[in-house]
Design goal:
heterodimer; A: 114 residues; mainly beta; seven-stranded mixed beta sheet; four-stranded antiparallel beta sheet; B: 111 residues; six-stranded mixed beta sheet; five-stranded antiparallel beta sheet; 55% strand; globular
Chain lengths: 114, 111
């Protein structure tokens, strides 16, 4: 079955530590996105990538970094500069990043601070 | 910034009743989309309505769009307990599928 796989499902971060969230898709989609969701809130865009080796900042990119070395993979690193990282992180993809396309989502990673 | 705002924040109904959720937004859009999220899961796309469309149906779902009022509504007819979830509207102002989401409506359907 085609889809988006996020791992791990739960992740804990210690003070001063960088952690990396994995997002893999086998939908052959060009565009991928990372969102952050806080309790009772909507999704906010962190980073997005419309093609391999290229990515753009979203609304809340500070304290995060990404890479897009392969079409299938778009990992997100939460750095120690992100002072409030506790949230639910969602990865999504679309066919080619153009308009009028639905986004396909993974099942998320819940990040907490130890 | 969050462009879409759903109303109501929470809705509780009985099975078989209809559920209506509203979404307002601020800037011009290419399309508006509705998504569903079950607790602790990712979002599932329900329906996309383009800016030149006024109404769209998909099964028990009916979506309307009024660009003059910058608003949309999602109607779920003959609701079921399995419809219990949060529902989000999302707008695409840029044309690059970088969606802006509202805070959602939490729907509870009781058997």
């Amino acid at each position: 079955d085609g889809g988006i796989t996020q791992s791990p499902k739960y992740l804990f971060r210690k003070e001063g530590q960088n952690v990396t969230l994995s997002c893999e898709q086998n939908l052959n989609h060009d565009a991928m996105y990372w969102y952050r969701q806080d309790p009772g809130q909507g999704l906010r865009l962190i980073y997005y990538s419309q093609i391999v080796n290229d990515f753009q900042k979203g609304d809340i990119a500070e304290g995060y970094s990404v890479s897009r070395e392969k079409k299938e993979s778009f990992p997100l690193t939460v750095t120690s500069a992100q002072k409030n990282p506790t949230a639910f992180y969602l990865c999504a993809s679309t066919l080619d990043g153009h308009s009028n396309q639905p986004q396909h989502f993974g099942d998320g990673t819940r990040l907490s601070i130890l | 910034s969050q462009q879409g705002e759903e109303d109501p924040q929470a809705l509780s109904i009985q099975e078989g009743e209809n559920a209506t959720m509203n979404c307002s937004y601020k800037t011009s859009i290419n399309n508006l989309q509705w998504y569903r999220q079950n607790s602790g899961r990712g979002l599932v796309h329900l329906i996309l309505i383009r800016s030149n469309e006024r109404e769209k149906h998909s099964g028990r779902l009916r979506v309307t769009l009024d660009t003059s009022k910058k608003s949309s509504s999602l109607l779920i007819t003959a609701s079921r307990a399995a419809d219990t979830a949060s529902y989000f509207c999302a707008t695409d102002p840029s044309g690059y599928s970088t969606l802006t989401f509202g805070k959602g409506t939490m729907l509870l359907v009781s058997p």
